[in-house]
Every structure is written in C-alpha cells, then in structure tokens.
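Backbones bend. To wit:
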Amino acid sequence: MDHISRRSMLVGTGAALASAVMGVDAQTKATSAPQACPAPPAHASSPAPTADQIRRLKWWKEARYGLFIHYGLYSLHGRQEWAVEKEAIPWSEYESLARRFSPKPGVAKEWVRIAQAAGARYMVVTAKHHEGFCNFDTKLTDFNSMKQGPKRDLVREYVEAARAAGMPVGIYYSLMDWHHPDGERSSVDEAARKRFIEYTFGLIRELLTNYGKIDILWYDGGMPLEAEGWEAERMNKMVFALQPDIVVNGRNHAAGDFSTPEQSIIAANNGRAWESCMTLNESWGYDAADDEWKSPRTHLRNLITCARDQGNFLINVGPRADGTFPEPAVRILTEVGDWLKGNGEAIFNTDPCQPWRPSYAMFTRRANTLYMHVHFWPGSDVSLSGLQTKVKSVRLLKSSTSLAFTQDAWRVHITGLPVEVPDHPITTLVLECESEPRMNLDHELRLAKPRLGVNVTL
C-alpha cells in the first residue's frame, strides 16, 4: 500500500494499471467502491507455483470465499480506518480512543457465526492496522488491547472462536505503522529502519508463536519501504520456519503465495493463486455514514466472477465500535449464504471456465458441466450463443427441474422457464455437455452466421 487515498483512485483505473503491469489473463471491473490503497503490483515474471505452494494452497483454493474484518480504534471514530492520517488527528487525541475501546463480550464468536451463515470458508481479521494499535497481547508496546480499554486479547478470542468452529484462521498484519516513532522515519534513517524492522519482526513472531496454527498471514501496508528495506525474504523465511503450512500474500513486496487485487477482480497469470479483496459497502473500517451497501446480487456476481477464473473472493465488513456488524451487512451476508446452500456446487471446487457472459448471465464450470448464472431474469426463455459442444440436458440447479432446449450451430435456446425468477438473487441453470464446454468468442462466428439483406422478399 502507499499513501494514495482509497477514495482517489477509481477501480477502473486501478484495474487498468494492474493489467498493464501484470499481463493478466482476465480482468473484470467489479461493481465496487473506489480503490483503497492499491496493492503492490504482482511480479510480472512470477514463476509457476512450486510443489510446496501447491501443497499449502490446496485448501485455500478450494475454500474460494472468505470474510475479511477490519476492526480497530478507528471504529470508535466512525470515519474509516485512515482517519488519523486523513484528518490529521493529534495523537494525544487519537490515543484516547484506546482507553475507551470496549468490544462486546463474545463478539468474536458472533463474527464466526456470521461468517458461517454467509457461506464463507475462511476468515482474515486485523491484528494490527496502520494506526499501530495491536489487538493482541504483545510485550513490545503498551499500545495494545491487553494494556488499554479492552483488557483482553482480541486475537486470541478470534482464533479460539474460529478454531472451535472449524474455520481456518487468517491474520491481517500492517507493516506500515503511523504510531511507532520509526514507522515513517525508517525510509530516510537507517538506524530508525533497523529499530523498526526489529519491532516488526518481533510482532509477527509473537502472532505466529503464541496462538497455535495460523492458516493465512495477510500482510498489508508495504509503504514506506520496498522489499529490501522490509527484509521481506528474511521475513518470509522466519514466517515459514514458525508456521510451515501457512499461506502468505505478497504485500510485503516479496513474491508470496498469492496476489491480492483490491476493489477489482484481476486474474493472475501463469497459474499464480489470487484473491480479490473488496468491501461490502465503500469502507474497510467502520464508517457510520456509509450506506452504499452492495446488494446480495452484486456480491454474488463478484464471487461468481472470481470462481470462473479460479480466484478467491474476500469480502470485508468493518464492525462498529462494540464489534458488532451493521445490520445491512448481516442481512446481505445471510442472503448470500442462503443462496450458497442451494447453489454452492457451482462455486466451490470448480474448474477454469472459458465461456464468457451474455448480457444477463455469467458462467462457471466443473468438468463437462456448465453452470449458467442468470442475474437479470429475462422471462420464459434464455439463450447462449457460440457453444461448441453438444448439450445433453438442462435443469434448474436449486430445484433440479428439467428444462426444454434446442441447439443449432449458433445458439442453445432454453425454453419453458418460469416467467417470474425462481431463485433470488440469481438463478443458476445446469447444462450437462458431452465434452468440456467452450464458447466461440471470435468474430469468425459472426461472419459465418446467415444474414438477411435489405429488400429481401420473404
């Protein structure tokens, strides 16, 4: 991350920049908020995954969908997680929030319950954000949840609640630290950098030593240093020595295991794992005035897009000061979870999918089965053009109702559908094909299609 405003970079611009740098296979402008702090560009020459990465990432890639939680002192201020910097709040004033910080008892269990209801298969929670406050018991600073208002180790509560529910545990850790006196100075003062690196390594070591098995380390805040300044390779070497099975992103400027496009959906190339992280409204940390909530349909369309290109989707909620989720977030996540109960087979453990979207639908695939996700229900019939394999049968996924269809060289035409949409917010059709479903997306298909000319007598 850098100091570019989250609100100053439009998602389309961020996606275009990332595409130019990364040489991506696929790119989608997601319906989302403007970008936050753009993720560091993935390494354009990223090597193919190693055998060890394939081993460690297997569960993560199968999980496909996770819940991100940004929770810190900024939730009391209620104007997002960058407020102390963006509003130039004096530290003497901002530190008073730590003394008033009082999460509701048992809130971590509530987070896990909501994550499970949403159909999420892993979680990532902030242990320390850029503000420098540690949501855990650390010996390296008094600016932590044990010494301040909560008098509790919030990371431990989260880890124990997630583990009890069988939910894989992800820890978010910001390298950038506005509170530490050497945090910014480290970019211009070598002695300050060495002190700050020792502090940074110490906090990461505590997180990966004191809480049992951690499944994901989600670095963030790669400014103001680059890989050499962060000693990123040595950092990762320590991480894997402490947690041999962990997966790690690349936001400390080392390659890491997976890329992290932010507020956009950009598929990585060369088989590299990737995860799109996105906010459910327009804020990472709690903003009391932010009511720009994505609809369940928009949320699902983003998840489907990631699944199509073999990426993960990490959706974020910023809890209120007491740790509880805003009611709209709970409602949206629950509706998405209800949909996944009946349609999850079309999202999880799916294969790369070549067919692209018509105006009202999207696709995922498993083997020779093509899932057609109709988000704008057109009524009694739907069509897709250019499918290059024979369709054997069509049915509604949720109800298993068989559907009539015809197929010619140009389209598959599915008829006899209910006029009213049968499944909210998206209805999924299942097309069983004779071979891997592939779609002709070339101009040649249009050139070969019969046309009627002007003044033709019928």
Observations:
- The longest strand covers residues 122-128.
